[in-house]
Amino acid sequence: MSDATPETHVIAYRAAEHLLDARDPRGALKLLDPLITAHPENTAARLLRARAFFLAAQLRSAELEFQLVLEREPDNAFAHFALARTLERAGRDAEALRHFRLAAALDPRPDFVAAARFERAP
């Protein structure tokens, strides 16, 4: 994608979204990797790639990508929630709970609040 235009990057991003919706994370990764190589600062593409890693059960790669997003956007509730789900899936429940609670504090959506389990003491 080195000769790609901004328009082709947008098309690749949208196509990767559709592939994720169709449960094809590996296909999405093939489209996102060159886009991120060309634009490493693109947080939206990184978040989409993190989701693709998660769906492909590449938990360590998903964790690293979600953490990178959170370094840039520490108030991104969805990234905290998704990182928590990744950590939970990896059996790291205490770390996951911290990020579930951060997500719920940043955005009190019912699913975030339920995952945060505020009714239990830490």
TrEMBL record:
SUPFAM superfamilies: TPR-like (SSF48452). The keyword Transmembrane helix does not apply. The lineage of its organism: Bacteria, Bacillati, Actinomycetota, Actinomycetes, Kitasatosporales. It holds the Pfam family TPR_19. InterPro entries: TPR-like_helical_dom_sf, TPR_2, TPR_rpt. It comes from Streptomyces marincola. Gene3D superfamilies: Tetratricopeptide repeat domain (1.25.40.10). TPR repeats lie at residues 77-110. This is Uncharacterized protein. Keywords: Repeat, TPR repeat. The keyword Repeat applies.
